[in-house]
Design a protein that fits this description.
Blueprint (H helix, E strand, L loop, with lengths): L1 H10 L1 E2 L5 E2 L1 H5 L4 H14 L7 E5 L4 H11 L3 E4 L11 E8 L4 E8 L8 E9 L3 H12 L3 E11 L4 H7 L4 E11 L2 E4 L6
This protein binds guanosine-5'-monophosphate.
The site of guanosine-5'-monophosphate (5GP) has 19 residues, from β2, β7 and α5.
């Protein structure tokens, strides 16, 4: 998605050869017009998949998922990273190792919001080693529901996430695929010359 790649080039900050900071438009300040375009693109890609729910993870997954769910005409559910005091024990739980925080946390979704008949589109802001996506997939499966695919805003293709998910048979749609972060520069997969 050209508009997204341009935002990454112009407003992203390469923190290291592993980590890209996009606080300017996704992870802290939110470019709502860009997020709307991203959501519409996810909705277009999965328009034939019979999606009944969009599932993401708080907090950075919410903005790009909002317009996807709106366009698809489905509810948006976000998994919580901390169990809320108002949540009873009727929750699906999965353990996720966080790439950026380097710690394992439980994520939870209330059993009220996912059913066995659901066809779920999972959306997240970044794909690194696939742990967040696998945790969300685990929760969908606990509900007996079906995963239609995974929509990712920024995939770091030099990490293992896509490979892991594709090996398990999942459809992965990433709107920007980063080949390399090096010396402050971002190279995208589709810019590589063969
Ligand atoms: P994974 O679970 O695929 O290893 O990592 C994905 C999760 O880690 C995302 O939900 C995202 O919050 C975070 N993450 C991974 N890599 C980056 C990165 O380079 N920049 C930012 N801002 N977040 C990242």
């Amino acid at each position: 998605m050209e508009q997204l790649k341009q935002a990454i080039r112009e407003r992203g900050n390469v923190l290291s050869d592993q980590v890209l900071k996009v606080d300017t438009f996704l992870n802290h300040q939110v470019d709502v017009n860009l997020m709307a375009a991203i959501g519409e693109e996810f909705a277009r890609l999965f328009s034939e998949s019979g999606i009944t729910k969009v599932l993401t993870i708080e907090s950075s997954g919410i903005a790009p998922s909002f317009m996807a769910a709106s366009t698809l005409g489905t509810p948006l559910i976000f998994a919580r990273k901390k169990k809320s005091l108002t949540m009873n024990n009727d929750v699906f739980v999965s353990s996720v190792y966080s790439f950026t925080k380097q710690e394992t946390n439980d994520i939870t979704v209330s059993k009220d919001f996912l059913d066995a008949g659901d066809v779920v589109l999972i959306i997240d802001d970044f794909l690194a080693n696939g742990q967040a996506a696998l945790g969300l997939i685990d929760i969908v499966h606990q509900a007996g529901a079906h995963v239609a695919g995974i929509g990712i805003v920024i995939e770091k293709s030099f990490q293992d996430g896509r490979k892991l998910l594709e090996e398990q048979g999942y459809r992965v749609e990433s709107l920007a695929r980063v080949h390399q972060l090096s010396e402050g520069r971002v190279t995208f997969v589709d810019e590589l010359t063969t």
